[in-house]
Amino acid sequence: MNELPAASVKTEAEHLDQMPVMQHLIILRQYLFKIVGVTIALFFCLLPFRNYTYQLLSEPLRQQLPATSSMIATDVTATFMAPFKLNLFVALVLAMPFIIYQLWSFIRPALYEKERFLAVPLLAGSIALFYLGIAFAYFITLPAILHFFISVSPETVAPMTDINSYLSFCLKLFLVFGLTFEIPIITLILILIGVVSTQSLVEKRRFIVVGCFFVAMFVTPPDALSMVMLAVPMWMLFEVGLLLGKLLEKRKSKNEEAA
């Protein structure tokens, strides 16, 4: 009874090896069509709310601006294009679970049963951490950064941010934090595939911490507050991934001893 799944997986893997490259590309195209279709559908569903969505995005800035200041549009098309771009970004973010699922469906036949068992929680965790990173950037990092920049502006200068510039700044910040919060997943994958071990990571911890601050210095705005607010979570997330990796290694060693 236990040999049937393994034999089935082996047969499926052999079938995939025999498929020509063009057949793989055709199957991948089908999944990509589904991804594009769902993203476009979400985009048009959210389109009537694009201005309201931009108001939510600009709320942290509008709370920091003086009463005599407001956001401006330096381009004729900015009042239309900025909410339009934000609407596309929101559609992609909302479609992320479906996108991940489609990519998982494409690579799933090439994985063994054990790899599939590990991949499901890793994929679910990566989606949750990506959303958590965006939420952290919006509710914590963005207000703090805006408050810092506006508070240090000269009294004779009235801050009036262009809506396109503000949108680009926010989207960059969201993507950086969304990807940064994937560090535990990346750490676990590197440990699982044997590229690194928890012992080697512990020995190189000081260099990794310095690397976190070095990376944060280049991907955040040029101020110490932004760098610290990204580097410290990167460090903490690395520690979380390292802890989970140690638990996996202990579990693996116990299974080997039991076997």
UniProtKB/TrEMBL annotation:
The root-end lineage is:
Bacteria, Pseudomonadati, Pseudomonadota, Gammaproteobacteria, Moraxellales
Q: How does it assemble?
A: The Tat system comprises two distinct complexes: a TatABC complex, containing multiple copies of TatA, TatB and TatC subunits, and a separate TatA complex, containing only TatA subunits. Substrates initially bind to the TatABC complex, which probably triggers association of the separate TatA complex to form the active translocon.
Q: What family does this chain come from, according to its entry? A: Belongs to the TatC family.
Q: Topology in the membrane?
A: Multi-pass membrane protein
Which compartments does it reside in? Cell membrane; Membrane
Name of the molecule in the record: Sec-independent protein translocase protein TatC
What is a single cellular component term in the Gene Ontology annotation?
TAT protein transport complex
- According to the lineage, what is the superkingdom? Bacteria
Query: Which Pfam families would you find in this protein's record?
Result: TatC
Q: Which UniProt keywords apply?
A: Cell membrane, Membrane, Protein transport, Translocation, Transmembrane, Transmembrane helix, Transport
The main location class comes to membrane
Gene Ontology biological-process annotations: intracellular protein transmembrane transport; protein transport by the Tat complex
State the species of origin: Acinetobacter pragensis
Q: Corresponding gene?
A: tatC
MF terms from GO for this chain are: proton motive force dependent protein transmembrane transporter activity
Q: Does the keyword S-adenosyl-L-methionine apply?
A: no
**NCBIfam families this protein is in?**
tatC
* InterPro entries referenced in this protein's UniProt entry, alphabetically: TatC
**Role description:** Part of the twin-arginine translocation (Tat) system that transports large folded proteins containing a characteristic twin-arginine motif in their signal peptide across membranes. Together with TatB, TatC is part of a receptor directly interacting with Tat signal peptides.
The signal peptide annotation in the UniProt record is none
